[in-house]
């Protein structure tokens, strides 16, 4: 195992039980990821990609094995510690955007800061700054229904960054977008990775984009890592 690994995953397993049936979503996955890397995660449906991201994001707990982030054992945290980890260390982007339709773009981005005790003035300042960074400063007062799919995903990226996380987890962020918009979203993520040193794990089926922008590609099949390729 790489001693310099920022994220250390060791013998990670996750088994789901449905009545009397057990389904192994992950089986003894071991990975080491250095700080500041953009890592693509690929594999067919049911290969364990989303399970891996959910475990890294503290949304679920492993059945066996462990995850360490900056030396901290995430799988051993209490519920309160895990909530703080999700709020302070992790940013998450999903395929379906998950924006609040009643809120404007700037209100959607600012929303997570409400739970961190940040003042309204500071929440809006940070949200507007991030919308500018993703090219949506002029659309800050528009609601999700007034934005295109690509614009909604940019709002989701800004929202994921508002708590200044160390790790960004993106689960099929281009899954609902056309090829041109998909490229724009991946370019934004790549730029964040380069400028801010943000560690990014991105699930994607778009091999060409991953080979162009990712530092590494991890391939999963039936819950097992079948390849871990360093691109650059």
What percentage of the residues does DSSP assign to strands (E)?
25-35%
For CATH, the homologous superfamily is named as: P-loop containing nucleotide triphosphate hydrolases
Shape designation: globular
Taking the sheet with the most strands, its summary is: 6 strands, mixed
Query: Which fold name corresponds to the CATH topology?
Result: Rossmann fold
Unreliable runs: none
The percent range for helix content is 25-40%
Q: Provide the spatial order of strands within the biggest beta sheet.
A: 6-7-8-3-9-10
Number of domains: 1
Strand tally is: 10
Number of helices: 7
Distance between the termini: 19 Å
> Helix-strand pattern, N to C?
EEEHEEHEHHHEHEHEE
> What's the CATH architecture?
3-Layer(aba) Sandwich
What is the gist of this entry?
By secondary structure, this protein is an alpha/beta fold.
Walkthrough of the structure:
Helices cover 33% and strands 30% of the residues. It is globular and about 50 Å long. The protein has one domain (34-61, 78-230): P-loop containing nucleotide triphosphate hydrolases (Rossmann fold). The protein has 232 residues and is an alpha/beta fold.
Question: How would you summarize the topology of this molecule?
Answer:
Elements: E1 5-18, E2 21-34, E3 38-42, H1 49-56, E4 64-69, E5 72-73, H2 79-88, E6 90-94, H3 105-110, H4 120-133, H5 149-161, E7 167-171, H6 179-196, E8 199-203, H7 207-213, E9 216-221, E10 224-230
